[in-house]
Design a protein that fits this description.
Quinone Oxidoreductase, Chain A, domain 1; 2 domains; metal-binding; alcohol dehydrogenase (NAD+) activity; 347 residues; alcohol dehydrogenase; 11 helices
């Protein structure tokens, strides 16, 4: 099969090309519950850039050469002997983690903290290819209204945004405020989820007019340019007290300090983006009683809930399509801020 393959790391992301489009062996069924998916769309994520940088070497067992791609949807191509709930030809979306389902975390539905797991695109070969190996337990059948290429980024960008926004929506009340930092690939989904699940007013911060226009289309009531006056503007909008919830989809640079400054006392700061550092004097946490919440990818049930929102048209993805052969171009466009929403590779 054809695949876009990473052969070496590029710590500073300066190489002309990061991946090679080449012929590799097809994946094979190894376990009774294995499923091979013919990839219909593979989302291009900033995490892919972090893998190329080598950041994930200390967090996951990434062995080169490696096939990226952890946001995947397509059609069932082949199944193991024990697979029952999907059949060849079914359109499916893939939860990003492949787990056995027997540990306590799995039985509680907390897939991302399973005792044993594979993460295609991170520590196993992913979907920047014509075919990908996954497991039956990771698959959700798609309704007729949703095509694989249109939903693939929901499996990480959408699911991570949903996971954080759903937490926030549980405590946000009418008359309260939610701040979303970053209206990009994750943020524009988080805005829609907040709009669908709660009645709080949504303030969105970004550094580009294009992203702010997208945020307005997604349901944001207040748009704020991310300049040196951003904290003052948010405090003014919230009556000087800050927001009850701040969802930081950037997580680096000045977004961390700004995000905490925008969070009102007894409020919640949700960290979604990463790459920066969080430094808070303990006395400030005590006196403000702010809650800081880390957010990983969501669960299988949350992906089902997100698909229900997508099927009903209450959440939609802004996407830009690239061929698999143009994987480097897609990654370069993402790196240089030329993608509005999410990029999707079509094998």
């Amino acid at each position: 099969m054809k695949a876009a393959v990473l052969h070496e790391y590029d710590e500073h992301l300066v190489n002309d090309a990061w991946l090679r489009c080449e012929e590799v062996e097809d994946p094979r069924i190894e376990r009774p519950t294995d499923v091979i998916v013919r990839v219909g769309g593979a989302g291009v994520c900033r995490t892919d850039l972090h893998v190329i940088e080598g950041i994930w070497r200390g967090k996951a067992d990434v062995a080169l050469p490696h096939i990226l791609g952890h946001e995947n949807a397509g059609w069932v191509e082949a199944t193991g002997s024990a697979v029952e709930h999907v059949k060849v030809g079914d359109p499916v979306i893939c939860h990003p983690l492949v787990t056995g389902g027997h540990c306590l975390a799995c039985r509680r539905g907390n897939d991302m903290h399973a005792a044993e797991s594979r993460f295609p695109g991170i520590n196993a070969n992913g979907g920047y290819a014509e075919y990908m190996l996954t497991g039956e337990r990771s698959l959700i059948k798609l309704p007729k209204s949703l095509a694989p290429k249109d939903v693939a980024p929901y499996t990480d960008a959408g699911l991570t945004a949903y996971h954080a926004a759903r937490k926030a929506a549980h405590h946000l009340l009418p008359g309260q405020y939610a701040v979303v930092i970053g209206a990009g690939g994750l943020g524009h989904i988080g805005i829609q989820v907040l709009h669908a699940l709660c009645a709080a007013e949504i303030i969105v911060i970004d550094r580009t007019e294009q992203a702010l226009h997208l945020a307005a289309d997604c349901g944001a009531q207040h748009l704020v340019m991310g300049d040196e006056h951003v904290v003052d503007r948010v405090l003014e909008l919230t009556g000087g007290h800050g927001a009850e919830a701040v969802l930081d989809f950037v997580g680096e640079g000045d977004s961390v300090a700004n995000g905490l400054a925008m969070t009102r006392n007894a409020g919640f700061y949700y960290v979604v983006g990463y790459g920066g550092r969080l430094e808070v004097p303990t006395i400030d946490l005590i006196t403000s009683e702010k809650t800081i919440v880390g957010n990983l990818v969501g669960t299988y049930p949350e992906l089902m809930e997100l698909m229900a929102l997508a099927d009903s048209g209450r959440v939609r993805l802004a996407t830009r399509e690239y061929s698999l052969a143009d994987a480097n171009l897609a990654l370069k466009d993402l790196h240089h801020g030329r993608v509005v929403g999410r990029a999707v590779l079509l094998p």
